[in-house]
Amino acid sequence: MITTQLSSELSHTELPEVWRPEVQLQLASGENVLSALEVDLDARLHFAKGLVLLTERRIMARAPGETVWQSWPYTPDLTLKLHDHAGVGHLELVNHQQRLGSWRFTLGQNLLAIRLSEKFTALRDSFVTQQPIVQSEDHICPTCKAPLEPDQDECPICTKVVHTPPSTWTLFRLWRFAKPYRWPLLAGFSLMLLSTGAHMIPPYLTMPLMDNVLIPYQNGAPVNTHLVWLYMSGLFGSALLAWVLGWGKTYVLALVSERIGADLRTTTYEHLLKLSLEYFGGKRTGDLMSRIGSESDRICVFLSLHLLDFASDVLMIVMTGVILVSIDPMLAAISLLPLPFIAWLIHLVRDKLRTGFEKIDRVWGEVTNVLADTIPGIRVVKAFAQESREANRFRVANKHNLAVNDKLNKVWSLFSPTVSFLTELGLLVIWVFGIWQVSKQHITVGVLTAFVTYSSRFYGRLDSMSRIVSVTQKSASAAKRIFDILDHVSSVPEPANPVKLKKVEGNIALREVGFRYGNRAVNRGININIKAGEMVGLVGHSGSGKSTLVNLICRFYDVSEGAILLDGVDIRALAVSDYRRNIGLVLQEPFLFFGTIAENIAYGRPDATREQIIAAARAAHAHEFILRLPQGYDSMVGERGQGLSGGERQRISIARALLIDPPILILDEATASVDSETEKEIQKALDNLVTGRTTIAIAHRLSTLQKADRLVVLDRGKVVEEGGHDELMAKEGAYYRLYQAQARNVDTDLDDATRKRHDD
């Protein structure tokens, strides 16, 4: 059998150090701990620490809040059950006669609990059959020391950590967007090369101008007018040529960079729209808006301005270096002395700037998140008089942003003057050594003048490049945040070879459907058959899994287990957009876009005629109130439809669903947020809507589902009852209790016996 030493080989992630002395006292001689799980909830679901251990001989446990250890030797009838619900995991140790132990834990421990359960089965079977379990050191994670299965190459814990390369390299991934413009880019960089070469001419002409004209004239010789005009023409011509080439390369590269930025924004937004609701559930609106807006704009500015300057600086430095060496190698070597120090300083500061700008981006996301929360919810803010609280939230976020920027500015404020000082020092060295060379008549005054001019440009460009480090790291950070979106793979993937349904009948079948949201099991083992044209009502307490089931049918999420079939075809085999075009959805809180009434009704069918829009509004009992608006169907509604009442918004939502004429209709608490009078109007509209369609309706008010052909009662993510209203009332079971509770206007849970029966 495996012999894992408690002190060294057992993963510290499984057995915390604080437990080791106590566990050591409980072990018999030669007994070793092979797996452990720290449970953190007691029987009342209060936080408390406990421990479950596996050795090669037995399972041991100390329940949370207790001091006594219990143990059970491995026997053939011993079973360890693992299940979870609503964020709480549950381990049960049972035999044929009774439950021996029960431990609860938060789902952060779920992976270790799964390993413990699997290890228990292997150890029990090994103990009963006396066959050893062989596990080599090759199947232990070298990082966290957690045990791996024989067919596992990667540790599921360690691989959750995403190792990203230095973000500067992320900028090279922008070539994907630059590739379609490679020929204009090549033309722009060719113009840049020629422009930089044109800038190299004037300093070179100063050497003969100084040695052949000015110095001889100072020594009494007459001015050579021909040479003066020749050199002046050369200086003017090179300046004019540099201007023309500079204008051309700036214009061409600016046009290209703007198109790259536009393509980047469009691609990111299109990819964002294809991601599942699961992705949006973990993101803040302000953060996503910041990435697509300000981050892409920052990249565009970098490509159009700073990258151009950087490339120009590199070319200027290379060309200047070559010219300096060709003029005087010794003086060139002296002039380049500060270069290694500047390069080392840039390397030293770069990483600090990169991490600093990444943190600034995250903190700025906090500021935009406050705005994204507060502005759409301004009515709630004012209703509860929380203006000062929200202002304080913004003040705190803004102060945090200021503190992070101040910290980074300390680094930058020291770096930039240091580089400037080293460049000035380099020029001073050139003057000192150059004057000494002139005094020894090794070089002329013209050569020294040209050298100083070129060196000034060299160090000026070097100083400019050092400043671009800041901009580069900002852009790299922005690119990383955008590629975080582009690299995310939707959890609702498109099929490689989608099946096409010629005509959708509307038969829906759920086969052993289960769904987990992260570590939390929401639905389990659901089997429902819905015939074409049938109306099925989903009922149950809040949190029973009704809305999640509707999200699965709409394929906003994909099932974790089982399958959902439409007319006998797994919906995962259908193209997502083609499938959803067959579904009309009416939500509890209808969302209207900023625009006209007509545009909102025609949202799912933009090519609809005005007659079709009006017909849908009439069927939804919305035509009358629309005509009372100032511009009728052309009346503008505010953001999210704030200019309309809840009932009016809901009827427009119903008209929107009617217009696309879907074979499948889903009503998610469509009348939950309105008064009784408005509910009657909406119910009339819904009666028109459900006719001839497969309808799945969720309603908190059970009275609104009495027209349903069948009711499905959910509890804790499972189907507990199914049948018509009268049939379920006659059973006096779960549905009967729900109905009676509503009649008494109280909230009650299913009785413990019903829960336990269906949990088992």
Automatic annotation (TrEMBL):
It is found in: Cell membrane. It comes from the Bacteria. The keyword Transmembrane applies. GO terms for cellular component: plasma membrane. GO terms for molecular function: ABC-type oligopeptide transporter activity; ATP binding; ATP hydrolysis activity. Its main location: membrane. This is ATP-binding cassette domain-containing protein. The lineage of its organism: Bacteria, Pseudomonadati, Pseudomonadota, Betaproteobacteria, Burkholderiales.
